[in-house]
Amino acid sequence: MSEELYEAVTGYCEEFLGSVKEYPFGESAGVYKVAGKMFALIAEDARPPRLSVKLDPEEGLALRAEYPDHVLPGYHLNKRHWNTIVLDGTLDSDEVLALLRQSYDLVVAGLPKHLRPPAPDR
């Protein structure tokens, strides 16, 4: 299950307008950015892989409480806004992709208007 979920996550990241994948922290951490700002980080060498996303602080806390072993404070990131999701299938694909979309939308909303790409579904 985790490999399918990993493929769904990476495929979805690549669909977002303006999305660029970089490896600023080495070969094991893929970072997806829009207009130079990170919206997702995938620890590709972890088994199962882990996805870090930016969320509203209250939503992140609620998810951490509901899934204490599978949604963790963002690893090496601002723990108020960033959450690390263990891609082991505990959170289903639809939920993970919705959280990923929220992360992208939050980052895009924080960009100056002239740098914001249109939403991919518009």
TrEMBL record:
Q: Does the keyword Nucleotide-binding apply?
A: no
Q: Which Pfam families match?
A: YjbR
Name the keywords, alphabetized.
DNA-binding
Which molecular function GO terms apply here?
DNA binding
Q: Which domain of life is it from?
A: Bacteria
| Classification via InterPro entries | YjbR, YjbR-like_sf, YjbR/MT2646/Rv2570-like
UniProt keyword annotation of Zinc present: no
Name recorded for this polypeptide: Putative DNA-binding protein (MmcQ/YjbR family)
Lineage runs: Bacteria, Bacillati, Actinomycetota, Actinomycetes, Streptosporangiales
